[in-house]
Design goal:
The chain is mostly helical. The protein has 4 helices and 5 strands. The protein has one domain: Alpha-Beta Complex (Aspartate Aminotransferase, domain 1). It starts with 6 loop residues before the first helix and ends with a helix. The model has no long low-confidence stretch (mean pLDDT 95).
Length: 132
């Protein structure tokens, strides 16, 4: 067995670095647009606060104001509970912030289409409004 990248992956990486780079400014602008939209939309949802991320393609909003609430008798007391609730009720997959050392947050990716981002955030907002 080996613990190194396969030779095919190594050759693909070399070609990616040596190949045309003209798409990079276009993708950087697109990711900036998605990031700005996601952060603005998250901050409009009651009970969520989100700083503008400066690296990668994730937003890390604070959702702890929803802890202590419940849905159909099931309590939400952590980022793990909230993530489970949102996948079940809003059909949105995200990652609990507790997996990254801060349970007050969840992690959302904006490395998808703007349409998916808008639909996902709409579903999150509706699902959060159902917590009591």
């Amino acid at each position: 067995s080996t613990s190194n990248p396969t030779s095919i992956a190594q050759k693909a990486a070399v070609e990616a670095l040596r190949g045309a780079q003209d798409f990079i400014p276009v993708m950087v602008a697109e990711f900036n647009r998605r990031r700005a939209y996601m952060v603005e939309a998250l901050n409009k949802i009651k009970g969520i606060s989100c700083l503008m991320p400066v690296g990668a393609f994730y937003a890390f909003p604070n959702v702890s104001s929803y802890y202590g609430k419940s849905f159909k008798g099931k309590p939400v007391n952590s980022s793990f509970d909230l993530s489970s609730y949102l996948i079940e009720e809003a059909n949105v997959a995200l990652v609990p912030g507790g997996a990254f050392g801060d349970d007050r947050y969840i992690r959302l990716s904006y490395a998808t289409s703007m349409d998916h981002i808008k639909k996902g955030l709409d579903r999150i907002e509706k699902a959060l409004a159902n917590l009591a």
